[in-house]
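seq as requested:
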Amino acid sequence: MVMTNLSVGPASDPARTSDAAPADAGPAVGSGPAAASGPAGISARGRRLPPNVALYVLASITISFLAASSAPTPLYAVYQAEWGFDPITTTVVFGVYAVAVLLGLLTMGKLSDHVGRRPVLLAALAAQAVSMVVFATAGGVPGLLVARIVQGLSTGAALGAIGAGMMDIDRPRGTITNAVVPGIGTATGALVSGLVVQFLPAPTHLVYLVLLAVFALQAVAVALMGETVTRKPGALASLAPEIKLPRAVRRPMLVAAPVLFAVWALAGLYGSLGPSLARQLTGSGSEVLGGMSLFVLAGVAAVSVVVLRKATTRTVMLTGILALIAGVALTLVSIRGSSATGFFVGSAIAGVGFGSGFQGGIRTVMPLARPHESSGVLSLLFVVSYLGMGVPAVVAGFLVVHAGGLTATAQEYGLAVIVLAAFALLGLVRGGRDGAAVLPGA
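struct tokens:
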């Protein structure tokens, strides 16, 4: 589960892509309405998808990739029953994906600037298809780990190309689309997978085969898209990770980092242990309910991004931090009181904190980075986010088995999230910067 591409394409240089369209892609795809309504995407060698259609195709790829990342969540209980592993294994399988996405972003996030958007996307779709086959044929934990690693690397590689490609086509629409679709994908994957598992045959196979068919159709659509950048040398050099923290963003980073870590740690909890908590509180073994907690968290996060897209950065950050604290606090009270209703209401409030906190964190830092620094700064924000999603989830799995159990671990985890959010609130009040009224680059 990821909402990685919230505000800007990590690999794109918008100033360059606006005039860098190759000969076979028609006129350059730049920014603004004129570029969006122009004839870009019509190839001299044959018809290409219109820009609006291409934008929807790219958005659909983000949705399907992140739906695929959350699809195993309702299945963990099935795998655990069949193969007899403990919650530590569940969280390790979840954490491996986060690390793989991080590696994919850091090493291949800039590759599409050099070889083009379409080649990277086609390769990523092929890798996703392979991971679906591995999932569908997995006979044990090693198969799950291999599938998650392939899935994570290809997702990390693709998100940069998708984000940059959407902003190449139409910068304002691409920016807000980048912000909304990750939550839609994560929420959809968790819910649909739960429905498939509970009501359709072959639960550990069917959802992956459906996604495999979706990836095949998307590959055809990508092949019909026009390229928006020209190839340039330096592809191999671009694979070297580049993380920088310029002086101008150091203080805002101290404000943003705690809330980024906190919201992604919360997402890690819901993605790994959320189904177990939901089943324990409801007393039901329903796989739909198992995926519902992640669906609520990610779905509300996506809605909050849309609602607050024009608010000031300070307003977004304050909303995110306060909603995160309130939502997690209500969730903890509900877990202690065994209230399923309170748990889901708290998850919805925490979802506002998730979406707003991540959006606000990005907007606090990125406007201060110079164009040539943006990729490295954004990569560092992703490092903080994915460490937050992966590491605490694995620690939580260990504590469930060797410490106080599921309920105690969830409460300790939630308190840690609240403390991190409180640090972020303190930093914002003492010196937070009020940024632009819209997402960076819009």
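Residues 51 and 104 are 27 Å apart (CA to CA).
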